[in-house]
Every structure is written in structure tokens, then in C-alpha cells.
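General statements about sequence and structure are easier to judge against a single worked case. For one protein, we set the task of working out the C-alpha cells from the amino acid sequence alone. The sequence in question and its C-alpha cells are set out directly beneath this paragraph.
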Amino acid sequence: MMAHSLEEMIKTQIVSRGIKDKKVLKAMLQIDRADFVLEEDIPFAYSDTPLPLLKGQTISQPYIVALMTESLDLDSRSVVLEIGTGSGYQTAIIASIARRVYSIERLSPILDLACKNLSKHNFKNVNLILADGKNPPLNLKVDRIMVTAAAKNFPEGLFEKLKEGGKMVIPIEKGFIQVLYKIIKKGGKPEFYELCPVRFVPLV
């Protein structure tokens, strides 16, 4: 599905599929996806599909960005750890709602791209960190975690970074497919809620 404007993208690809959180819809209207795709892909910025970045990475489909953000249940107090900065698009959507975002990226050319893209929006609440996403150098516990790459197994180490009652959204391999999960920390244990099948680059 190819939309020809940001407003059309939100109406036909996001609202029509059941995304209702007004904070998410407002953020996606404020943050133009065209600012986060490669220059040659700007004509396809509002298309209903992932788009390529550098080093085999991708910018996610708009609906998946919206679904993952809505599933985090963000508010203005939320401190969020994002694993996989990518183009910075998902980072920008989160930062438009949350109090602070710590975004981890392992590839320096991708992090440079995200810095360039995010500079167009003058965020003061985003910390970009070049590091291994499986072992982020963050000495605090956070309210929310979003992982934008598919893990082979449930990442216990990342889950430990989550506060009690906190929420994580992550794709995990399940047999021959990947499944997007919302995970809530209750009594120190994970409660899993299956959202939908997805396709992400692997978490390495």
C-alpha cells in the first residue's frame, strides 16, 4: 500500500489497523518518516513496507513502529531503553512521548546516520550509545525496553534492566518464524503476550 502523504499513511496504514493511542498517532504525525529514510528512498517514505538502510539494516514498516510503540504504554514519565537505533525513526517516535530514551546501536555508520536524522528534530531527551545491544552499558533500570531486532531466545540480561511492572516489546524467534511479544515484569518474572508474526534483522 503506497500513501502519498504522511497524513494518508497514518489514516490508511495505522488507524485503519486498530492503533488508537492518541499519543502515538500525534507523534507519528509530528515525525516525518521521510526524514529517516535514505535519500533515494524518499519517494517511498510513506509506503507500507520496511526500507533498506546501510549495512543490511532496515527502517521498519510504519504500522509495526506504531504497534510496538503503542504496546509499550508510554507516558511522559517513561524512561526507555531501545536496542537497535537504526535510522532513528523509532527513537524519535518514542522520544516524542517519553521522558528519556537511551538508544543502543552496535554499528557506527548506522549510529552516525541516526545522529544526522535526529538532528533535524532537536530532541533533548535522547542518548545515543555505540555498544553491544545484548549487554548495554546502562547502570540503571528502566520503565520500558524496545528491541528492534529478533532475538533467538528470551534475553534474560536485558530483562534484568527492567523495573518491576515494566514492559518490554521484542521479536523472538519461534521455530521458523519470528513473533512480536509484549512482556510484563511481575514479581520479577516475565509474563508473555503474543502480538503478531514479524520479520526483523537478527539481534547479534
The domain at 6-198 is CATH 3.40.50.150 (Rossmann fold).
